Amino acid sequence: MSGSIVLFGPPGAGKGTQASIIVEITGKPQVSTGDMLRDAVARGTNLGAKAQNFMSQGLLVPDEIIIGLIEERLKSSDASDGVLFDGFPRTIPQAEALADITNVSAVISIEVPDEDIIERIVGRRMDPQTGEIFHITFRPPPSEISHRLIQRKDDTEETVRQRLSSYHKQTKPLGDWYQNLGLLIPVDGTGQIEEVRKSVAIAVSEL
Ligand code: AP5
Q1: C-alpha separations of 186 from 56, 147, 159 in Å
Q2: Which atom of ligand 1 is nearest to the CA of 54?
Q3: % of the chain exceeding 90 in pLDDT
Q4: Domains (ranges, CATH) in the chain?
């Protein structure tokens, strides 16, 4: 399938968790703006320093920073047949800029109500060696690696509430925008991880 796929949804919906099945089916590389920004913060780059302040408060990083990051990323040879965007675009100006540089063929929207989000995010843990995402209740890690797992700095209840607020004000309208373009494919994200994975796999196989 030509073109890029967008994985859309609120913070903690399961975008990162479900990205792997889409990569497996389509062979497209995952491009996560959240991971790119965290990498820039960890490396202490100028871009990271600018982004950190917004991220720690649960606010969106300004569009021009994000669009520049994506323009650079799409120049890589592995992006020539399209990519899987995870967490991008998140505003209508970002989506408009994206439309100028690449073709989006589908937007998979993982739908989860706000009341499930806080528990999902506060319980999230990540393996820094592999990037694998776990949850203390919903996807417990194997005991031999649990000592090395980390919690994201923005995964506090207070920051999650701000991230949800940013999502409703700035990102949710983008879902309607993609729906009007006939690209939005809603997937129920409230079941167990494996159930959602099956629904995502069906949606992607039908593209
Ligand atoms: P980003 O890293 O993109 O964070 P996010 O959108 O808030 O999404 P998350 O990574 O929190 O959640 P997810 O949907 O991937 O869920 P996951 O699979 O991990 O962005 C971070 C920050 O960077 C933003 O706040 C912003 O400041 C900045 N930023 C990034 N992109 C930007 C952009 N384009 N524009 C401007 N600013 C930008 O799952 C969550 C947990 O739930 C895990 O523990 C998982 O195990 C569990 N889980 C998953 N599915 C299920 C299920 N079905 N049932 C039970 N538990 C589940």
Answers
A1: 29, 37, 26
A2: 27
A3: 98
A4: 4-29+82-205 (3.40.50.300), 31-75 (no CATH)
